[in-house]
Amino acid sequence: MDEYMDLGDIADEWGVEPGTVRRYHHDGRLPEADAVIGLNARRRKYGWLPDTIAQAQRPGQGARTDLHKPTELS
Q: Which region ranges are annotated with the description Disordered (predicted)?
């Protein structure tokens, strides 16, 4: 039997709040779910294989470029 990660599991894996991952899912910034449970659209549960999440690039603000001082040219 395959084991799937839910939104809470993904939040734990990425070290973010569950609400953050719910927003990523709502905004379409997560990969397509590997499994969907339930026929009622309002009560569906989504699941992702751990490999799917491991290969996904976590959405976020990106790198902070203001932390590095520019080098001086001589």
A: 55-74
Nearest CA-CA partner of 4 in 61, 39, 43, 52: 52
The helix (run of H) or strand (run of E) holding residue 25 is helix 18-26
What the block records as the tokens of 57 is 């690039």
Which candidate, 8, 15, 6, places its Cα nearest to that of 58? 15
How deeply is 73 buried, as exposed, middle or buried, from its count of CB atoms within 10 A (0-12, 13-18, 19+)?
A: exposed
The reported pLDDT for the residue numbered 5 is 98
- Per-residue pLDDT at 41: 84
